[in-house]
């Protein structure tokens, strides 16, 4: 059963082939540049702070902890690098990567360019779970509660959208807004009834997003989530392209549409839950970074997902550096920085879309 | 060679039967036109025949294989569907959109990029869209997008090609070019089944027709035997004369509003 042979001379296609090949090379080189930029950003960000530390000291500290010789720093300076700044910055990078990835995947699955973990209620669900644990002292681990909250919010959003009819992008987002508002309201209620003194600060950090308390456990959770969920997502990225023209079209290409949607949305909820469990809800990373990358290299997901992850990592490293250093010794929640940078970009995107459609 | 056969297809929606016990066959190497007034169930039938949505009952066979028993990827290597008015939010280039048609052949890690480029180029050439390869699909006109979607289905390189109103949005030259392309696909062995709005196109370009009305088959068979004035009047309520094109020798339908019933 062979397909009919269409013998057409391919001479005019030479240009096309060159173009396609060129865009692949571009994607690889953009990826290389971003990867180098990420490593440099992390190293430089560690040097920034009240105590001035040189880049070579950063490398020496890392090398000595990895057991590759190198003379160690003084215990105090080493503590600043290894105990405080490095884990926080690595967490920022992982959270940025995770949120950007989640956003890009959700935008594909809901066929909605404005979808992100925020919009579908995942972040507020995760926050509710986390705040409930902090305040009510429920005997659950924070990441587990955050994941539970994210998952519950996602299920509620999709169930609500389904109840209203077919699972269209517009309905999904509207349902997300409803679920998000409800989760936010319950979070406020929990805080109102139970928060006292110190816990306010902790909760504010949660609601606005903060990496101030990130230590090596946070690195383990977030980098682990990227390794276990994020990397497999990048490997199946091409399946997301198949959703470009809708469910029927994807099904005609042999994609098991419903199974893929639920598995990938579940994976996204897990990833978001892991990120939110250490950082609180940080907005706009999942929305803005995939868009910026699309402008650079086009929307094909095999390029988009890894590049978004890298760009998200770099972005959040610098946003968090700004958050802890701009008004030192006072520290801004990083969610404030991403919102101040992200909201205008979001507005620009809206205006651009109006121009296009 | 893979023909298509379907029996007793039944699809309900919103409490009524949209497709009600339809039998349908299409031989390989032929063009079958599915015609019928609006709401006859053409699109729903095509989706069932493409096996993208399972009908409430009935069977669909590709060659001698049960379409719904096939693994999805294998099925997608046998049958391609061109939807009516499929839109996208994603800013893919035309070339990338067409390359989606290679997914069933390549899987998720498709390695043979040279082969992909070759098929994409050929498919774009077949629909006259090579110059648009690098354009964003969202920037295309309706007719250009329709042709890009056709190229995507061609890139799928399937022995069965199902199309829902493939000439929609096209200007007349592109309509005729598309119909001629379907004929040449059939000539090289493809089984082509297309829902067509234009009875003249069905008359001139199809080998057989399946006439639907109210979700049921009204008539089916060779175009010249089935598409006759009496049937057209019964199904569409218009008068028709079948002429022969002096140049091409193909049938031409001359349609007119029904003559007023003489009062006496």
Automatic annotation (TrEMBL), chain A:
Compartments, as annotated in UniProt: Cell membrane
UniProt cross-references to SUPFAM superfamilies, sorted A to Z: ABC transporter involved in vitamin B12 uptake, BtuC
Residues that span the membrane, as ranges: 25-48, 86-106, 118-138, 144-161, 173-196, 216-236, 243-264, 270-292, 304-320, 332-351
Membrane topology: Multi-pass membrane protein
Origin superkingdom: Bacteria
Main subcellular localisation: membrane
UniProt keyword list: Cell membrane, Membrane, Transmembrane, Transmembrane helix, Transport
Family: Belongs to the binding-protein-dependent transport system permease family. FecCD subfamily.
NCBIfam families on file: F420-0_ABCperm
Protein name: ABC transporter permease
Organism whose genome encodes this protein: Naasia aerilata
Automatic annotation (TrEMBL), chain B:
Record SUPFAM superfamilies: P-loop containing nucleoside triphosphate hydrolases
An annotated Gene Ontology molecular function: ATP binding
Record keywords: ATP-binding, Nucleotide-binding
InterPro entries with a match to the protein in the record: AAA+_ATPase, ABC_transporter-like_ATP-bd, ABC_transporter-like_CS, P-loop_NTPase
Span of domain ABC transporter: 4-239
Pfam families according to UniProt: ABC_tran
Protein name: ABC transporter ATP-binding protein
Source species: Naasia aerilata
């Amino acid at each position: 059963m062979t397909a009919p042979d269409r013998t057409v001379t391919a001479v005019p296609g030479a240009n096309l082939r060159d173009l396609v090949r060129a865009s692949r090379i571009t994607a690889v080189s953009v990826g290389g540049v971003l990867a180098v930029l990420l490593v440099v950003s992390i190293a430089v960000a560690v040097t920034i702070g009240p105590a001035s530390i040189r880049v070579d000291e950063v490398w020496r500290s890392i090398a000595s902890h990895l057991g590759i010789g190198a003379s160690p720093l003084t215990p105090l300076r080493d503590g600043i690098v290894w105990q405080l700044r490095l884990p926080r910055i690595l967490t920022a990078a992982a959270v940025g990567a995770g949120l950007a990835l989640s956003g890009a995947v959700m935008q594909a699955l809901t066929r909605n360019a404005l979808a992100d973990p925020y919009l579908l209620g995942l972040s507020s669900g995760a926050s509710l779970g986390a705040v409930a644990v902090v305040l009510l002292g429920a005997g659950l681990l924070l990441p587990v509660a955050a994941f539970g909250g994210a998952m519950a919010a996602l299920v509620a959003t999709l169930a609500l959208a389904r109840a209203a009819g077919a699972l269209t992008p517009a309905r999904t987002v509207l349902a997300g807004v409803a679920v998000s508002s409800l989760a936010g309201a319950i979070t406020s209620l929990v805080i109102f009834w139970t928060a006292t003194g110190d816990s306010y600060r902790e909760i504010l950090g949660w609601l606005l997003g903060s990496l101030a308390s990130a230590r090596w456990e946070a690195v383990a959770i977030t980098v682990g989530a990227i390794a276990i969920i994020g990397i497999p997502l990048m490997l199946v990225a091409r399946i997301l392209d198949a959703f470009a023209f809708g469910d029927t079209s994807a099904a005609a290409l042999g994609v098991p549409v419903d199974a893929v949607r639920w598995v990938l949305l579940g994976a996204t909820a897990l990833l978001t839950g892991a990120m939110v469990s250490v950082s609180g809800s940080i907005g706009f990373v999942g929305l803005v970074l995939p868009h910026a990358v699309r402008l650079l290299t086009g929307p094909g997901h095999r390029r988009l997902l890894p590049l978004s992850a890298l760009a998200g990592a770099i972005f959040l490293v610098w946003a968090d550096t700004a958050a802890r250093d701009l008004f030192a010794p006072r520290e801004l929640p990083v969610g404030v920085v991403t919102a101040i940078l992200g909201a205008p970009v979001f507005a620009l995107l809206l205006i651009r879309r109006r121009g296009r459609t | 060679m893979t023909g298509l056969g379907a029996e007793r297809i039944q699809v309900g929606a919103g409490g009524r039967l949209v497709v009600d016990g339809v039998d349908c066959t299409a031989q390989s190497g032929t063009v079958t036109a599915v015609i019928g007034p609006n709401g006859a169930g053409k699109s729903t039938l095509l989706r069932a025949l493409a096996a993208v949505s399972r009908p409430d009952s009935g069977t669909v066979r590709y060659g001698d294989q049960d379409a719904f028993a096939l693994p999805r990827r294998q099925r997608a290597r046998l049958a391609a569907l061109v939807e009516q008015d499929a839109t996208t939010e994603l800013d893919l280039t035309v070339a990338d959109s067409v390359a989606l048609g290679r997914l069933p052949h390549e899987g998720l890690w498709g390695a043979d990029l040279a082969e992909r480029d070759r098929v994409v180029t050929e498919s774009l050439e077949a629909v006259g869209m090579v110059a648009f390869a690098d354009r964003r699909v969202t920037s295309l006109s309706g007719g250009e997008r329709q042709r890009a979607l056709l190229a995507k289905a061609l890139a799928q390189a399937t022995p069965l090609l199902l199309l829902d109103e493939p000439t929609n949005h096209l200007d007349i030259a592109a309509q005729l070019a598309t119909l001629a392309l379907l004929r040449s696909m059939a000539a090289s062995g493809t089984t082509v089944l297309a829902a067509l709005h234009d009875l003249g196109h069905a008359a001139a370009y199809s080998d057989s027709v399946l006439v639907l009305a109210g979700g049921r088959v009204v008539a089916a068979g060779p175009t010249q035997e089935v598409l006759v004035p009496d049937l057209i009047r019964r199904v569409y309520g218009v008068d028709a004369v079948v002429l022969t094109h002096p140049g091409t020798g193909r049938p031409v339908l001359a349609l007119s509003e029904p003559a007023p019933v003489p009062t006496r």
